[in-house]
Structures are given as structure tokens and as C-alpha cells.
Amino acid sequence: MKRTQRGATSVRALVVLVTMALVFSVSGCGKKTEVKYPERTVNVIVGWAAGGPTDLVARGLAPLLQAKLGQPFVVTNMAGAAGSVGADNVSKQSPDGYTLLFGSETMSVWQVMGTVPLSYKNFEVAAVVAEAIPALIVPADSPYKDLKELVEDAKKRPEAIKMSTAGPGTVPHVCGLMLSKYLGAKMSFIPFQGGAPAVTAVIGKQVDLTTEMLQTVLPHHKAGKARILATFTNESVAQLQDVPALGEIYPEMKPYLPYGPWFGVLAPKGTPKEVIQRLATAIDECLKDPKWKTHADNIFVRTLNITDPAKISAHLDKWTSDTAWLLYDLGIAKESPEKFGIPKPK
Fold first, then answer.
1. pLDDT tens-digit profile of 278-308?
2. What's the gap between Cα 234 and its chain centre?
3. Which residues contact 235 (CB under 8 A, 6 or more apart)?
4. Where does residue 261 fall: left (phi above 0), alpha (psi -120 to 50 degrees), or beta otherwise?
5. DSSP for 263-309?
6. CA dist 129 to 60, 215, 224, 308, Å?
7. 175-212 residues labelled b (16+ CB within 10 A) or e (exposed)
8. What is the DSSP-derived secondary structure letter of residue 54?
């Protein structure tokens, strides 16, 4: 009898212990473990040469992220094939958040231009950080006093006016295509190996105009080597009130403006959501830092700070749809956007 009572007592004790273990286990499951990221150096790959818009934005954000997250964020330039060389490299890295891509708008048109079978959708996008402001420039002694004179001449003499670009499908090229499609200013496009040589061609009067990012052309404007006729915005840039916005000159262009390259932080596909969220939160805080505002103003970029996944998709999908279909409709893109599930602009 005593043995039976002892046995029953042991069973009850065991049941109590198991129940307590289950309770603690279940309650523990409800607690979120803080992600310990980063715990070592984070490599940030820029698919363009040093000194360009993408590089300048990346190098302005990297030290702020380093201060915020306590580990080095080292920027490395890996240029080539419209930024795709660096992107391809990052896509093959371990999806752990320690190799990131600082990407830009060319990712939106690689597929339709036949560059590489990659797009931003092959990555996890932590944030869309900012966008740059394109500006249209002519030689300092150009006969065109303002943009309307240039546009009217281009209408009268289709393809007689020469416009240098950073290459097919780039933002400068698309800006010229916009003038052609929406204003009837048809020009002859001369591709160069990047924005800098395209600007040099304007200064050297090899061509009549180009469109390049404001931070690149402003020094030449101030030095009297070239003149800015307009920015691809709806309102004049605060630091350049004497330069009109394209939307002010041609109100019919407002629905397509502002237009400029986007810059974002991306990680290899499959990077844990917790790591992406940690990055997104840190980026959001960095972009609210006065140091970032000063940097953004100095390089003439507009802060976007889009970190919500749904809003990121909406922004990038619209940008891609607008640009890819413009390139295809005007016979520039090699592939139809439909092939890649890119819908027509509404």
C-alpha cells in the first residue's frame, strides 16, 4: 500500500514538472529574441565608380549606419555593365546581411535592356533612401537662352540637335526621351561611357546638350563652362532659385515629374526578415539625422526614406513601369516589359 502511494505521488510530481516545463516553454515562445546584428564588419558594394551619385549617397549613409549599429560599414566600388557587375556579385553572397548592395535605378531596366536577368526583385530591399535631380545643360555660349528655344528648334529640326548621354537606358537618356515623347523635341542621342564624359562633351561643344545629375553639372555651371536650363522637377531647387523647373516651363510635364534615379539598400534574397527590419529601422533613424540632411543638401539629392515593404514595392514598381515602357515604346528596350511581368503605366 505504501509503495502504491509513493508511486502515485511520484507520478503526480512528474506531471506537475512536465506541465510547468510546457508552460514556461510556451510563454518563452511568445518573446522575441533581439537580433544581434551586426556583430562584425558589413561590406557595402556600389556598382558604380567612386565619385558618382550612387557612391556619394552610399558614402554619406555608411558612417551614420556605423555609428548607429556599432560596426564598420565599408563601401567598396565594383563598377561595370550599368551597375550589374556589383549586383551580380552581391546576389551570390551568403544571405546574412554582411554583404549589402547600394543599388540604383538601372536595376529597374536591366531586364528590358538585355543587360542581365536581374532586377531589384531578386534582392531583399531594406530601404529606398533618396533620389537625385537631373539637370539639362548646354555649353556656356550656346545660342539657346532658355529651354523653350531649344525645344522649339528640336521640333523644327528633328534629330539635328545632338544630346550626349551616359548610355542607352540611363536616366540622362530617358530624360531626353521624355522631351521627345511628351514635348516633341526629337534629338540625336550620342552615348558616352558615363555621365562625366557626356558632360565633358557639352563643355567641349562636341554636342549641344546633355542631362546629368545636378551635383555633377553644378560646378561647371558656377564656373561658367556650361549653363543649366532646367531641372527635372516641378519646383525650382531651393539652392538654385534662378534655374527654372521643367514642370514650371511645361505644366503638361508635371505628371511625369520629379524624375530622377533612386538609390537603395538591398541584401541577397533570403536574408532574414529580422536583419532587414534591423537595417530598415537604423536607416530610418540615420536619414532623420541632421548630418544626413547636410550631406543630402550638399550633393543635391532628395531624401525619400521609404522603409515600409509595401511602400517600397509601390515606389519601385511605378518607377520601373514608367521607365521600362517608355524605353520599349520608343524602340530602345530590347525586350518587352510584359515578358517580365512589368505592367503598363496607368
1. 999 999 999 999 999 999 999 999 999 999 9
2. 20
3. 245, 247, 248
4. beta
5. EEEEEETT--HHHHHHHHHHHHHHTTSHHHHHHHHHTTEEEEEE-SH
6. 11, 17, 32, 12
7. bbbbbbeebebbbebebbebbeebbbbbbeeebbbbbb
8. H
| CA-to-CA dists, residue 243 to 58, 94, 139, 229, angstroms | 27, 47, 15, 7
Amino acid at 178: M
Q: Quickly tell me which residue has 532623420 as its cell.
A: 288
- Buried b / exposed e over 153-165, threshold 16 CB at 10 Å, is bbeeeeeebbbbb
What confidence score (pLDDT) does residue 1 get? 46
- Provide the H-helix boundaries in 165-298: 171-183, 195-203, 214-222, 246-249, 273-286, 290-298
Q: How far apart are the first and last CA of the chain?
A: 85
User: Can you tell me the distance from the alpha carbon of 287 to that of 59, in angstroms, rounded to the nearest whole number?
Assistant: 13
Three cell numbers written together for 297: 543638401
Which amino acid, residue 244? P
**Do 110 and 88 touch, CB atoms closer than 8 A?**
no
Break the chain down into helix, strand, coil percent, rounded to 5: 50, 20, 35
pLDDT of residue 268: 98
pLDDT of residue 311: 98
Look at the chain and count its residues: 346
